């Protein structure tokens, strides 16, 4: 394909090319990606399962698996924001139903018993 | 930093809400960039790369933090919430590298050279269509820095290239492919899906600084084809092969 032909590709051809290359496109909308569709996917959303993240690194794949198992157990995947973090989080943890009403104060335990 | 007051009388509450929501997202994205540059600076120091490069990267990190503040200020003026961000994706991004020189080469290639080149292109397209004075001024400031950062990335890579072993260069070819897939997934795939789903985009949002999906797609792929892939090839990698193999795993 010449460069001129390539530049003339419309968005449908771009999407087809992406899929043929082996990629996928996630569902759009706030609920799915946490961002506007015209902004980088997953911007400000730490969900390890969106935007093809599991394919990007073994660590994100492991985190996505952890999140999936958490949800399957009825838990919630929650992000921990330290009070002096200026909006920065220190990672996400699985909060199981048994944890929710526990007398743990600010403790956000995960299955593994630690906060990353 | 003197910014003009927002001029929003011509827009509906729904249009303003949509445009407002963009600023915390931009702030979060700029914060991610700042974290990447800080990681890069530390890796450069650990890898004992020339201190001038480390200092330059630190300077870029400061630019990115100024963008975070700028986006927060603009968002606050429009009534947006304080942005939040999770640092884990950046940590995970770095965790895949085996040594500090690989961190430097990989991040410089994907996040700085390719990423900032595409980012500058998207900001340029967005700024071009923006009419609202506050958004226009903020985007202009960010755009000027992003263009400088992109040039810096390519220059730094050219300087780094002769110091890499053949094995590291092969690794960088694979990293280029993975990185292009990641950039496509994060920067343009949601827009493609948006159009595939037949959702409509209000043209007035472009005046408020929101880049229409069609323009995002065009800017992304044009930049990849005209600047990023030729840049990779000029460096000594195979840009076309990296693109065609971007979703294949070695």
Describe this structure in words.
In chain A, 33% of the residues lie in helices and 9% in strands. Chain A contains five helices and three strands. Chain A is elongated, with a radius of gyration of 19 Å. The C terminus of chain A is likely disordered. Chain B is mainly α. The model of chain B has no long low-confidence stretch (mean pLDDT 91). Chain B starts with 12 loop residues before the first helix and ends in a 6-residue tail after the last helix. Chains A and B meet through α1, α2, α4 and β2 of A and α1, β1, α3, α6 and α7 of B.
State the gist of this model.
Chain A is α+β, with helices and mostly antiparallel strands and 116 residues long.
In sequence order, what are the helices and strands of chain A, one letter per element? HHHHEEEH
Class by SSE composition of chain B = mainly alpha
Beta-strand segment tally of chain B: 1
Shape of chain B: globular
Oligomer class: heterodimer
Cα radius of gyration of chain B in angstroms: 18 Å
Q: Termini of chain A, distance in Å?
A: 47 Å
The helix/strand series of chain B, from N terminus to C terminus, equals HHEHHHHHHHH
- Large-scale geometry of chain A: elongated
**Which percent bin holds the helix content of chain B?**
over 70%
* Total of helices of chain A: 5
Number of E-type strands of chain A: 3
Report the mean per-residue pLDDT of chain B as an integer. Answer: 91
Largest sheet of chain A: 2 strands, antiparallel
Gap between N and C termini of chain B, in Å? Answer: 48 Å
What's the helical proportion of residues of chain A?
A: 25-40%
The major β-sheet of chain B equals: none
pLDDT under 50 segments of chain A (min length 5)? 28-35, 101-116
Average pLDDT figure of chain A = 64
Number of separate helices of chain B: 10
Q: How are the elements arranged and paired?
A:
The complex is a heterodimer of chains A (116) and B (250).
Chain A: H1 3-7, H2 11-20, H3 30-33, H4 58-72, E1 76-79, E2 88-89, E3 92-95, H5 97-100
Antiparallel strand pairs in A: 1-3
Chain B: H1 13-46, H2 51-77, E1 85-86, H3 88-95, H4 100-129, H5 133-160, H6 166-187, H7 189-196, H8 204-207, H9 213-235, H10 239-244
């Amino acid at each position: 394909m010449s460069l001129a032909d390539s530049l003339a590709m419309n968005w449908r051809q771009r999407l087809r090319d992406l899929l043929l290359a082996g990629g996928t496109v996630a569902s759009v909308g706030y609920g799915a990606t946490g961002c506007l569709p015209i902004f980088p996917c997953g911007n400000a959303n730490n969900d390890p399962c969106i935007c093809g993240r599991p394919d990007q690194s073994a660590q994100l794949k492991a985190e996505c698996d952890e999140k999936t198992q958490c949800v399957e157990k009825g838990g919630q995947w929650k992000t921990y924001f330290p009070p002096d973090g200026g909006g920065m989080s220190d990672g996400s943890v699985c909060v199981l139903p048994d944890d929710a009403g526990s007398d743990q104060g600010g403790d956000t335990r995960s299955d593994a018993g630690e906060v990353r | 930093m003197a910014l003009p007051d927002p001029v929003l009388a011509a827009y509906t509450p729904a249009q303003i809400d949509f445009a407002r929501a963009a600023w915390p997202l931009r702030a979060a994205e700029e914060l991610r960039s700042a974290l990447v540059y800080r990681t890069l600076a530390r890796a450069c120091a650990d890898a004992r790369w020339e201190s001038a490069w480390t200092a330059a990267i630190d300077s870029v990190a400061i630019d990115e933090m100024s963008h975070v503040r700028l986006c927060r200020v603009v968002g606050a003026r429009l009534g947006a919430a304080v942005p939040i961000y999770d640092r884990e994706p950046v940590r995970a991004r770095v965790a895949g590298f085996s040594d500090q020189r690989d961190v430097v080469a990989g991040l410089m290639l994907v996040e700085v050279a390719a990423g900032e080149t595409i980012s500058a292109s998207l900001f340029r397209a967005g700024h071009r269509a923006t009419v609202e004075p506050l958004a226009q001024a903020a985007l202009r400031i960010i755009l000027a820095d992003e263009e400088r950062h992109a040039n810096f990335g390519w220059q730094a890579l050219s300087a780094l290239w002769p110091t890499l072993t053949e094995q590291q260069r092969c690794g960088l070819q694979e990293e280029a492919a993975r990185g292009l897939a990641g950039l496509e997934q994060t920067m343009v795939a949601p827009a493609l899906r948006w159009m595939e789903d037949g959702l409509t985009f209000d043209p007035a949002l472009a005046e408020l600084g929101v880049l229409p999906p069609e323009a995002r797609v065009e800017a992304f792929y044009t930049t990849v084809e005209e600047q990023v892939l030729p840049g990779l090839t000029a460096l000594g990698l195979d840009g076309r092969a990296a693109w065609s193999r971007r979703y294949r795993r070695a």
